[in-house]
Design brief:
about 240 residues; mainly beta; Tumour Suppressor Smad4; 2 domains; six-stranded antiparallel beta sheet; 22 strands
Length: about 240
Amino acid sequence: MAYLRIFLGDTLLEQRELNAVRTTIGRGKDNDIVLGGRGVSKHHAVIEHHDDAFELVDCSSNGTFVGGSRVERRLLKYWDEIQIYNYVLRFMAVARARGEEAGAPAAGDHPTQEETMELDIASLGDLARLKRRIKVASLMLFDEHDIGHRYALDKVNFLIGKSVDSDIGVRGWLAPRIAARIQRRNDGFYLLPGARGRVRLNGGRVRRQSLLHDGDRFSVRGLSLQFLYRPQDDG
């Protein structure tokens, strides 16, 4: 049996069993899984069940992503993460702890940053406990007085730059539209420097994508930021 765990940002909303031949996903109320938000199409995607395989089909104009790559059709593998607008749908083999049944990754197979939160969530009580253990990703932006302002990393792509679509803006005539972005992937959050972004991570120049860890400090065109990835109870 297969399941989807549905996250909005880092908040677990629900777990759904994929027990139908077709499971529709979208903004419209006639879908099997309804996701709100302007970035979700009315009929955004379908998961089709053929024999023992599950195939994801994109039906949208806004795009459906798996592991950060846009897809039109894709056979799903267990532990794949489907990204639709601000939602992440994790494709699961079982509703139990990692390694207890077939379909869970073997020991040593590239564990994700959220590996420690896997547990039996067959009951509502277990689901509530799982929600409390989920890590929340955020950015702290520090001003000239070193006072931090928190931004939730609740998107697949969080943008820093001069573009009107940027989540954190930068100033200056030569500032690029996108100075840097933080992208959520299966194995964590990555810092991707843009052209002329002047990105430094923990004091060193960044020229290629870098996996972020809790507490990392970085700067983008003079802005001072810190990446936080902690359980909700830790604040």
